[in-house]
Amino acid sequence: MTDKILIIIFWAAAGLVALSYVFYPVLLLFLRWGRKIKKPIYFNDIPLVSIILPVYNEEKHIESRVKNLLSQTIAANFEIIIVSDASTDRTDEILRNLKNNTIKIDRLTKRSGKAACINRCVELSSNSILVFTDANTEFAPDAVEKLIRNFGGFDVGGVCGYLEITPAGKQKSESTYWKFERFLKKLEGEISSVCGANGGIYAIRKEYFKKLPEHKNILDDFITSLQPLRFGKRLIFEKDAKAIEPASESLTGEYRRKIRIGNADFNSIKEAAFLLNVFKQGWITFFFIFHKLLRWFTPVFLLLLYFSNLFISSFYMFYNITNILQISFYLTGLAGWFLMKKDKYPIVISSVAYFCVMNVSLLIGMLNWLTRDSKPFWQPIRNREKNADSVQ
């Protein structure tokens, strides 16, 4: 009887992992096939826009980031709201020296976290369209114009832009992952609505913004971009609104970032629970479950898959083979970790390593969530990597 229960656990765990990473893209392609895509309705007149930019210790990048925003094709139609999270470097000094009436600058008196910065930015904003971005993102010259033109349609409450992760050196694993993510967002947007945007480039109507909780680490971009869905509006994907963002320079840096994101995933479930109302949200409920929830709990499924397989492998030849395959997979990931630390990136091995690192960091993020170790502060990974290198 015990072995039968373990076999059920094995196949259930395997099925849930496959649902998210294999069957979900196939499902999206099936739903998209033959569907008439609704043409976007563009604005005749360009609306006024507020650019929301929270920063912390960005002295090396803030000036070039602001110049990038001021060079936009519709820069005359927007304001830039920058709030510093009590930065301890020269960020605030550099901002004070930027003399431009387009820019509003504020500083939090004590370290409060990204959500607090975003809330303050929105308080200071004057316009009806909010465009959210990060300090390490760079927009194409017409990115804002292409992003906000979609709000001409009454049913559109938010727009997710096209974010390209540029590999740092030979580190292509994260870039490959984001290509897959963009593919899923495109299909979701064409079928119904994108299930969450990336913080580097997205926009919503200000009327749908909901103040973010400031006491815990959350996915601010995910939560904020989904708010229009509460009101029956769509979050669509605009492939022509392009931006680039550098990948972490090392697998270690990506690992640290993923732990923070993993912790934020679980802290954000309560805020996104309204998506589980299938009668109101339709396909978006399935998008949320398959694209988000199953991904977030994949580390648990992988543990169940491995240990159930371990206990039944001695009784059945088939499960002995699957156990060997699992061990080989994780050993490949471990080998990939060491190779990538030596700046070697064979595509298959590095992809396996990235998958393993992503799920280990998700698991640690989950444990932090369970133990309520959830600080709202964020540290730019590129700065942490630099500090780590200097220590060595």
Please tell me about this protein's structure:
The chain is an alpha/beta fold. The chain has a single domain (1-383), classed as Alpha-Beta Complex (Spore Coat Polysaccharide Biosynthesis Protein SpsA, Chain A), CATH 3.90.550.10. Helix content is 52%, strand content 14%. The protein has helices at residues 2-32, 62-70, 91-96, 114-124, 143-148, 173-191, 220-226, 251-267, 269-272, 278-281, 283-296, 298-312, 317-341, 347-370, 381-391, and strands at 49-55, 78-84, 103-107, 129-133, 138-139, 156-166, 201-205, 234-246. An eight-stranded mixed beta sheet has the order 3-2-1-4-7-6-8-5, sandwiched between helices. The N and C termini lie far apart (54 Å). The model is unreliable at 383-392 (pLDDT under 50).
